[in-house]
Amino acid sequence: MPEHDVASTPGMARPDSAEIHDDRRRTDSPAAPRPSRGTAAPPWLPFRHLDTLWLQVTGTLCNLRCTHCFISCGPENHSVSLMPKDQVLDALARAPGLGVRELYYTGGEPFLHPDIRLFIERGLEVAPVTVLTNGILITERQAEWLGALFGSCRYSLDIRISLDGLTAEQNDAVRGAGTFAKITRAVGRLAARGLVPAVAVTEVHEGMGAPEARLAFLELLRGRGCRSPRVKFLPVFRLGAQAERLGGYAEDERLAEGDLAPEEYASLQCSSARLLAADGVYPCPLLLGQPGTRMGSGLDDGLRDIRLAHGACVTCHLTGMTCRT
Amino acid sequence: MPLGFFGGIYNNHLALEATLERVHALGIEGRTWCLGDIGGFGPHPDHALELLRASGVPVVQGNYDYALGHGLGDCGCGYTDPRDNRYAAISYRYTRERTHPRHLPWLRDLPPVLRVEAGGRAILLCHGSPRRTNEFLWESTSPDGFLEWLCTAHGCDVLVCTHTGIPWTRRLDSGQRVINCGAIGRPANNGKTEVAFALYDPETDDCTFVPVAYDHERLAAEVLAEGLPAEFAETLTSGWWTSCLEVLPARERAAGQF
Questions:
Q1: Could you give the CA distance from residue A149 to residue B16 in angstroms, rounded to a whole number?
Q2: What is the pLDDT of residues A32-89, one digit of tens each?
Q3: Domain count of chain B?
Q4: Within a domain: residue A6?
Q5: Core vs surface per residue A30-54: b (16+ CB within 10 A) or e
Q6: Which residues of A fall within a CB distance of 8 Å from B153?
Q7: C-alpha distances in angstroms, A285 versus A60, A101, A253, A311, A322?
Q8: Cβ–Cβ pairs < 8 A, chains A and B
Q9: Residue A222 is part of which domain span?
Q10: Are residues A1 and B66, on separate chains, in Cβ contact within 8 Å?
Q11: Is residue A201 within 8 Å of residue A217, measured between CB atoms?
Q12: Could you report how far apart the first and last alpha carbons of chain A are, in Å?
């Protein structure tokens, strides 16, 4: 399906030009254009509208040390600090005026933030909220609170829990000893309260995204009480802890003008999303703290076109990856 | 005088017939619009096409209509999950193979949006959203601020859409209104077999949804006789969605059975 030429109208809505967005995901196949290895300039991506506002509420602070974490979060990583309460509340107050469609809370582990309940409640007054969590802190009490909120809030509340294997052996090798049991218990607690948690699986193990594995994940979740199991698969990004273990993107592994298919000007999430963190605004959650990617100190600094100049942009281009659920 | 809006026929010629009868009974012929997606899901695509074209109801192009009209390989519904896309592919292949070629230029040339002035209000009719034909505007994930921006950016007081299959409406603090008229082709994942369309009075800004009962058992039998998935027939007879569920937001998903 055709995409309208958004590149010619950066940042502008296109009244009366209903646009077909072909959401089919491209794969790294021989038919897909190869990323450039030369010296051509990276492509510009026009900023269309702030549909999705990501808030890095706990910075890089996490209660786990996952081996594939693209921003190397952990209990001792304070390189990006918790967002101050006022910064989050200011962003939420601005969201309706900016026409924000959805809010995502991430970290680190968002439930480590002392004001996370306030953020979720206030967020749900202005937009649907998705919280990305490892599930470890979803106690019976927390699940009870989330369940009550889910049943009464104006907009949709989504809890997305990361799980990186079908067994404790698979998952715990990535997320830490004993986490499989805690994560799956959290899924069950939420399902028991009527929530419909989505489980995010990073394809760190070979074959994890294959149809058989997908079905196995759905069965696993049904076994934990999920009547309507939902699973999202994510590619591995060679950033952060993953890059430290296995190497990052090569210097010449970059996109160049002409690499993007027309539909990517709308489907790449950075065309309609920004991440706000304690230290400023970024094009997307993956690029937090990456050299040269910070767009400024405040949200307004991020509402502009960007160049897809990072190696991680190649992965989004090739896989059709979006961080949205 | 009220206006009628329906969408998402999905080959359900029996529901379309019942809807047109209801439109006639309400006396709103000539003030009723179809917001697209004539094909998909149900049986015998030409039945609905011929009925709709003969009715003279103006039609906005849906993603299905666009895809068929342009001979595309898939329906472009905008699903992202393999399970949704599997069912979508079955529906699309069936519909494409059975849609008579004489309908294709008509489908191809349908307008992506229509504008109507009524009661002093600028009403914009689209399929998914005015910016993208296959964008899903769900009630639980379409906040007021976003909708105000969307209406303002596209210069309308009233925005009418379909595509999700579940009807809802909201008057915004700005005075603008958004109406998702739902679908008449399959029930709204609410356990009821009837479908619905929107009735809007631009003078008073009142919007209601008109329930439409039809012979859903007969349509389910036709679905099975055509070799379409039994899950489709089950949806028609139970009122609960059994396929293309993964696209639902958490709130709408929790309200269903599956």
A1: 39
A2: 444 555 568 999 999 999 999 999 999 999 999 999 999 999 999 999 999 999 999 9
A3: 1
A4: no
A5: eeeeebbeeeeebbbbbbbbbbbbb
A6: 13, 15
A7: 11, 17, 20, 14, 10
A8: 124
A9: 49-72+79-319
A10: yes
A11: yes
A12: 23
A25 has pLDDT over 70: no
Sequence-separated (6 or more) residues with CB below 8 Å from residue B136 = B78, B128, B163, B164, B247
Structure tokens at A213: 């594995």
**A15 within domain boundaries:** no
Expressed as residue numbers, the domain containing B221 is 3-255
The nearest alpha carbon in chain A to B242 belongs to A228
Confidence (pLDDT) at A38: 56
Does any domain span residue A144? yes
- Is A150 in CB contact (< 8 Å) with chain B? yes
A1 confidence band (pLDDT: 50, 70, 90): very low
**Measured between CB atoms, which of A15, A127, A198 is closest to B153?**
A15
**Number of domains observed in the structure of chain A:** 1
Residue B241 has pLDDT above 60, yes or no: yes
B174 in contact with chain A, both atoms CB, cutoff 8 A: no
Residues with Cβ within 8 Å of residue A29, at least 6 apart in sequence: none
Q: Domain with B143 in it: what CATH number?
A: 3.60.21.10
Question: Is B76 close to A127, i.e. CB distance below 8 A?
Answer: no
Q: Which two tokens stand for residue B106?
A: 């008509």
ipTM of the complex: 0.94
pLDDT, tens digit (0-9, with 9 covering 90-100), for A226-250: 999 999 999 999 999 999 988 999 9
pLDDT score of B27 more than 60: yes
The pLDDT value recorded for residue A20 is: 40
Please tell me if residue B108 touches chain A, with a CB cutoff of 8 Å.
no
Query: Hey, what are A216's tokens?
Result: 């196995």
A99 touches chain B (CB under 8 A): yes
> Which residues in A lie closer than 8 A to residue B126 (C-beta atoms)?
18
Domain harbouring A208, CATH code: 3.20.20.70
Residue of A nearest to B141 (CA): A128
Q: Kindly state the percentage of chain A with pLDDT values over 70.
A: 88
